[in-house]
Amino acid sequence: MKRILMLGLIFLGMASFSNLQAKELPNPTGRVILTVTGAISNTNTAGGAAVFDRQMLVNLGMTSLKTGTPWSEGVDLYEGPLLRSLINAVGANTDTLSITALNDYGALVPVKDSFDYDVILAIDMNGEAMRIRDKGPIFVLYPFDTDPNLSNEVIYNRSVWQIKAISVE
């Protein structure tokens, strides 16, 4: 009897642990602007993907980044969630993200970058929602002006704009 009780407690503990690991994300109420697929444990679709509308990204917590970029003149104020916040929200278990733009341009971004630097998923520029013509709706942005080591072609290629999807590989 003791053995059965002990096995039952172990099973319940494992079930509780797995519930902590995998959880459903809220469903979007607005237009979906980002789809995350692959090795993720937290989803909100029957197909096992995590889809986000703008408000869901805002709810991850907004971070401000004032920086210049190689693709713009001067310095702009960008705001959006940290890339690592998205990684945590979807329960990503990977070393690499494959990020795809609306025009199907893609880049591989090491997850390590999101913890080494405050990489943001910019959704606002100078207080306005980023439009497609302004590299929106989402732009992977590194803090170029705070770390001169980020001003190189490798990092520029990882700075995907007009993002539509991220595959966790």
Report what the structure shows:
InterPro entries: OxRdtase_Mopterin-bd_dom (IPR000572), OxRdtase_Mopterin-bd_sf (IPR036374). The protein has 169 residues and is an alpha+beta fold. The chain has one domain (26-168): Sulfite Oxidase, Chain A, domain 2 (Alpha-Beta Complex), CATH 3.90.420.10. Helix content is 27%, strand content 28%. The strands form three sheets. It has a five-stranded mixed sheet with strand order 2-1-11-5-6. Strands 3-4-8-9 form a four-stranded antiparallel sheet, with no helix packed on it. Strand 8 (124-125) and strand 9 (128-129) form a beta hairpin. The longest helix has 20 residues, at 2-21. The termini are far apart. The model is unreliable at 1-21 (pLDDT under 50).
Briefly, what is this?
It is built from 5 helices and 11 strands; from the N terminus they run αββαββαββαββββαβ. The chain has 169 residues and is an alpha+beta fold. A 5-stranded mixed beta sheet has the order 2-1-11-5-6. A 4-stranded antiparallel beta sheet has the order 3-4-8-9, with no helix packed on it. The protein has a two-stranded antiparallel sheet with strand order 7-10.
CATH secondary-structure class: Alpha Beta
> Could you name the ranges where pLDDT drops below 50 across 5 or more consecutive residues?
1-21
Query: What's the overall geometry?
Result: globular
CATH-defined architecture: Alpha-Beta Complex
Number of domains: 1
Q: Cα distance, first to last residue? A: 45 Å
Average predicted confidence as pLDDT: 89
Helix- and strand-based class?
A: alpha+beta
The CATH homologous superfamily name equals: Oxidoreductase, molybdopterin-binding domain
H and E string: HEEHEEHEEHEEEEHE
Strand order of the largest sheet: 2-1-11-5-6
Query: In CATH terms, what is the fold-level topology?
Result: Sulfite Oxidase, Chain A, domain 2
Beta-strand percentage? 25-35%
Organism: Marinomonas colpomeniae
Pfam families: Oxidored_molyb
Keywords: Signal
Protein name: Molybdopterin-dependent oxidoreductase
